Amino acid sequence: MDQRLEQEETEQKSIWQRISIFNIPVIWFGVITILTLIAMYTDNLPAGIIGSLLIMMVLGELFGWIGDHTPIIRSYLGGGAILAIFGSALMVYTGLMPEQTITMIDEFMTSGGFLNFYIAALITGSILGMNTATLKKAGARFALPLLASVLAAMGLAGFIGLIIGYGFRDAILLIAMPIMGGGMGAGAVPMSQVYSELLGNDPSYYISVLVPALALGNVFAIILAGILNMVGKKLPSLTGNGQLMAGFHVESKKITYDINQMGIGVIAALLFYVIGQMLGVFIPIHPYALMIITVAVFKIAGWLPEIVENGANQWYQFVAKNWTLALLIGIGVAYTDMEAVINALTVEYVLLVASVIVGAVLGAGLLGKVVGFHPIESAITAGLCMANMGGTGDVAVLSASRRMELMPFAQISSRLGGALILLIASLIVPLL
Fold first, then answer.
1. All structural domains of the chain with their residue ranges
2. pLDDT class for 157, splitting at 50, 70, 90?
3. What angle do CA 291, 289, 137 make, to 5 degrees?
């Protein structure tokens, strides 16, 4: 009898030991979560990086684990990534998150620069960790699927708008263009200025019209990213499993983490970000795009010593592994307007937004295949990453599709693609 009880206790103990969240035994993670929530609801979270990063990491890992273990969400909706974003956005919308915590996370993400800090690490490390031959060949061909995604998205949206009575012009200008425009700062805000100058009305009027399209388009882009990941598993011939180029497979070197080299990686990421900012003063291109170009030039030219490239790659791996879900919580709190998403949910509007996302995926995927890209990776980077909300959307889409290594190409879509949309808008608005 005693032996059986002892065996049952051992089996029960082993079950609890096997379940872990963020590599922490689930019981201990539960204790951490309870203490963090008590601090949040009693207004005892310290301001700045300590309180913000703690609550973002704890909620991110909790929502991420639940999303990755919930069948429908895991299989069809992008898993933990989408639950982290919309779970935190729902907490804001329903008042479950205290106002002081919302303000603290918002400031940490925006004026505190956490989003820029994260993306700087991903861009620098992912480019410097790439195979040079792949970078040269893929970068030269990327413009074609990018342009195809824009044209296909506009064409399909205009066609659907004409059929359902929304209007060909309005479907393109008010739905397709803002969705493909690179997010709020690089897309909707300057686009509202362009529309105001060419069509009249105050820019704030156009902002109120464009934002729901951006928000809902971002939702569909994240969902479709998860679906494309599932399609890739069912049809492996369509995917490179994170590699953009057909016929080119970047060797995944086993990383031996070196604390000293990671420190070098931090400096490299921050310096390249600052270089992008400085160049942006003189060159009318978004600093992220200039940062990508600069890092790519240094990589292709071979100007950096191996220790810097290794350090940047190690730092990128650390950031992506440990802070992605935390960042997605910040995106949900600071950038996702649940009210705008809910208010936009009419059948016609949803159909039009879906047509933009589908058009972007088909255009980028098909032409990507023509130029030698894997269709799913091309559809994700040149399609979905054009159709999401800029840098925040890139992180969400790549996380949902399980392809964070595609960040450099995602940023090309969001930043250079956003500039392309503004140019197109200034040209076609007078014609339409």
1. 14-109, 114-428
2. very high
3. 90
